[in-house]
């Protein structure tokens, strides 16, 4: 099996199952850390990227700004009136003792974009149901094989069977579909 336990295409291209970082993806942990540390529910861009770069030394200033853009694009942060706020409950995020993010850049290539999208959809399904990640991945893979569709569409179809609204992911899935067919 590959990173997410599904076949990328029905022609047998394999990906591995990821651990989804126990549902608290590194990006969510970083965001929760900054907001919990500040004690505020809304922060200016500079109140996020300066602590990430200068105070904590986790990123360069440029990488910290790219992280913010990444988090907005991935719908982990929302920007309203020049203020950022998380799109999830930061109190539900467990921050490991001694947490230090990986030095990976938060610029997405197409493959990472797809993996992050599927991860985010699976997290949403888990939040709305009592299903385990393994049950979701198995069902997604079954749908994908049966219908001969890409995993992003398969996971959307699975979520629909539970009545889960994933409208906020449709544009990203559509973008992936068009890239697959280029």
Descriptive terms for the model:
Arc Repressor Mutant, subunit A, 182 residues, disordered N terminus, 7 helices, mainly alpha, 2 strands
Q: Helical amount among residues, as a percent range? A: 40-55%
SSE string: HHHEEHHHH
- Mean pLDDT, nearest integer? 79
Number of strands: 2
3D shape: elongated
Distance between the termini: 26 Å
How many distinct helices? 7
Note the quaternary state here.
Answer: single chain
- Taken together, the total number of domains comes to 2
Structural class, please?
mainly alpha
Largest sheet: 2 strands, antiparallel
Share of β-strand residues: under 5%
Q: Which strands sit side by side, in order, in the main sheet?
A: 1-2
Uncertain runs:
1-23
Radius of gyration: 17 Å
Describe the structure.
This protein has two domains: 67 residues, Winged helix-like DNA-binding domain superfamily/Winged helix DNA-binding domain (Arc Repressor Mutant, subunit A, Orthogonal Bundle), CATH 1.10.10.10; 73 residues, no CATH class. The protein is mostly helical and 182 residues long. The chain is built from seven helices and two strands.
In short:
The protein contains seven helices and two strands; from the N terminus they run αααββαααα.
Q: Any chance you could write out the topology, listing elements then pairs?
A:
Elements: H1 26-38, H2 45-55, H3 61-73, E1 77-80, E2 83-86, H4 110-128, H5 133-147, H6 151-161, H7 170-180
Antiparallel strand pairs: 1-2
Helix pairs in contact: 2-3, 4-6, 5-6
């Amino acid at each position: 099996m590959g990173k997410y336990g599904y076949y990328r295409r029905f022609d047998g291209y394999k990906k591995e199952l990821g651990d989804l970082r126990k549902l608290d993806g590194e990006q969510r942990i970083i965001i929760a850390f900054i907001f919990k540390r500040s004690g505020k529910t809304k922060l200016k861009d500079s109140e996020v990227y300066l602590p990430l770069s200068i105070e904590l030394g986790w990123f360069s200033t440029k990488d910290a700004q790219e992280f913010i853009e990444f988090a907005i694009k991935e719908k982990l942060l929302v920007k309203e009136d020049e203020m950022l706020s998380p799109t999830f409950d930061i109190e539900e995020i467990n921050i490991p003792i001694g947490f230090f993010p990986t030095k990976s850049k938060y610029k997405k290539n197409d493959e990472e974009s797809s993996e992050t999208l599927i991860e985010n959809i699976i997290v949403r399904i888990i939040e709305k149901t009592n299903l385990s990640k393994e049950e979701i991945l198995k069902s997604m893979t079954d749908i994908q094989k049966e219908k001969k569709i890409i995993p992003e569409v398969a996971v959307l179809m699975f979520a629909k069977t539970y009545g889960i609204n994933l409208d906020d992911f449709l544009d990203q899935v559509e973008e992936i579909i068009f890239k697959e067919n280029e």
